[in-house]
Protein 1
Amino acid sequence: MGVRNILIIGLGGVGLHLARRLVDEGYNITIIESNPQLISSAQAELDAKIIDGNAMELSCWKRAGAESIDLMIAVTDQDSVNMIASIIADRFGIKGKIARVRSPEYGYENSFLNKNDFKIDMVIHPEELVSKEIAMLVMRAAANDVIDIGEGGMKVCALRAGGSMPLINQTIEEIRNTYADLPFRIVAIARGINTIIPGDNDTILPNDQVFFMLDEQHMPRFIQLMGMRERPIQRIMIVGGGMVGARVAELLGKSVKIKLVERDPVKAEELASHIKHADILLGDGTDVNVMVLGGIMDMDIFIAATDNNETNIISCLLAKHIMNRTNVDPQGKEGKTIALVRKEDYLVLASTIGLDIALNMKISAANEIMKFIRMGELISVAHLHGVDAEAIELVAAPGSPITKKRLGKLRSQLQDKNIMVAGVVRNGACMLTDDNTTIQPGERTIVVSTTKSIREAQQLFQ
């Protein structure tokens, strides 16, 4: 589906974040919103057509030019509005429909009224998405994050620069020369609020979040060289028994031992009766005594999933300190923390102060929607957690700019645009590129770029 013109219903958290990304990537965006404050804020920062009105009124759709829209995205806080908007969009002939639906009673495959009844192509449930993301990260917790890239066995692994990591204060060129016999590539660095697509002269600094790309067959040796120790995840503590915390406990309860801390007595009692594979503790997750009594010292991972940003960040900081067994035993294991952060600005704070992983529901939902939008343009997309960058697969068209010179000759141009051509698929295998690599027409490549540079990366391959 070739998508250029997109209509967004609702400028709440997901809608605004999504609109920013889509505008940056060059899509034509129209928005229907009834809240004056949200409209005023969006008009100040978005190059988009904003309709002040109610999405349940057909006049708003006509003012939005619904007949020329390729994709409708309904992400208001009301399931009913989003589902009816999908039906209206279908009547206007809009081919693609995405709707946020939280209730399991509607819109899903096994619901009494499923997504086909509402003409929805894709259902988005932010809480479910971020819950599954947390569960996936827990099961891959040897590193901070491991992402599958393409079909050639490549992985992107994220590590915090600290402790025993041997790369600190070395340039990318020095690292490449030191580890010439171990093929890996540093494809992105998160440093405070900045995202770096590194060149040879960039240096790894303490507390950087560093993203490595390598073939999975080299992962065991890589983990050993980076000073990591693979140990099975056996015990997890979750603070917050809301929709996300309870769902994570359900997803992981049969695989690991879980203790779920909830401060509300009524909710704690409900959780105890509904979640079979977790111990429910009544208490405040920011209270050190509650943490200790709950066995925080024995935990492998601590997850903060309350509705309060500050609670999640503070409890993760406390847990990070308590779970650092290297304070008493140099060979001890350091527990990892995952914080649910509902305010985007706090993601930078969480990364800067040393939390392992911070997730945001709006961003998780937007990432899933972006995958759907790009389905017809890109082979695959993987968002790199904690950094404003993505790994995408592109095929080089005959005569495209990327095929005309070896990558070494294009290095300066690519770096200025925050784009890295990191891998290429040849003879059925994915291999890392270097300055001598020339991309051939028809070859599939793995490109890492900042989110704002994806459109420019695509143009290099067209």
Protein 2
Amino acid sequence: MQVSSLNEVKIYSLSCGKSLPEWLSDRKKRALQKKNVDVRRRIELIQDFEMPTVCTTIKVSKDGQYILATGTYKPRVRCYDTYQLSLKFERCLDSEVVTFEILSDDYSKIVFLHNDRYIEFHSQSGFYYKTRIPKFGRDFSYHYPSCDLYFVGASSEVYRLNLEQGRYLNPLQTDAAENNVCDINAVHGLFATGTIEGRVECWDPRVRKRVGVLDCALNSVTADSEINSLPTISALKFNGALSMAVGTSTGQVLLYDLRSDKPLLVKDHQYGLPIKSVHFQDSLDLVLSADSRIVKMWNKDSGKIFTSLEPEHDLNDVCLYPSSGMLLTANESPKMGIYYIPVLGPAPRWCSFLDNLTEELEENPESTVYDDYKFVTKKDLENLGLTHLIGSPFLRAYMHGFFMDIRLYHKVKLMVNPFAYEEYRKDKIRQKIEETRAQRVQLKKLPKVNKELALKLIEEEEEKQKSTP
């Protein structure tokens, strides 16, 4: 388990560490755990929580019991049962999944949008039905009151599929050339779609008419931002009845009140990468926005950074486990990320032991030690004659000093003082000898004649030495 801290917010990475191959026997696994410290200290929260190559999308069911993830290769979906902390089932698919939606409270009704225009429906037993949309899809949303699926993609039309009647309805005609993302407000059912021209069009599903347009591309340009291309909408998320967050392809997040066409706040990620997903954390009034490089958590009123998370591999999707401080990520790597942030909320019910574990770690803090790097100050660099390396990739600035490769440090140390190792070795040998001498039993040698008198005199001398300060 790896612990990081930013702005005094602890983030526990539960998925880091070495993973053991499945083909190893239990005997070899136990032997590795005895020998390797990294394997012994790792926490496998959910068994086999990974994909063969890459994970693209990850979601949690409404009841919180199941975690579903899609990935490659081969294209597949995996369902994990959190109550059993293991894989429940795995289903291989015909093509890669763009996105999917869980329609039921558990895993019994799932809809997949594939990259070959197919829409696939799965029931509890497995594959149920497959149909096709006219153009390539990029996102879809489900309108619960009318049982309509709204599909957006490489077309100006928004396709509607009614699941109650089992047929397509008349599409919604937008002013955009293509649509990237969409979302439906859970409170009043407003449908919003993000276009490649940088606009958000809002529609009323009851009358199938457009009720408003937001020009987010123009509002995302600030005095400090450098824009090389037209910002397109890459993420969209409603929060409550009146709040909406819009993510752009140039790395900005805009917060809107639906009663105004001007954004309340514009947050720039400063990386210039498209925003992948946006989530709201209501208990602390936070917004979680993620691009392929970083997950930023910031206050939705002031925009002040709360904390950030930068994984080792690029991000594809982020999912916030409901009513908890757990964060799940889909990465460009076989392992899916599991992060626990106690400040955001408690651990989920199925892994409540994490609260006790983090409390113990906070009570017994350990200093951070990097085995492959040596921390040196500027004075140490002057003694080693390495001040010319400041600003180069060989030194990484940290607090009041620098981190440098331990191998480079030993080489330079040996060149500066060739006899340093011999002196160190002699000192260690001398210390070992003194320790063994102190552990020996001290025998009192008594004369053969008058042993009792000699023993009495020795005891009197020891008492005098103890009494004298």
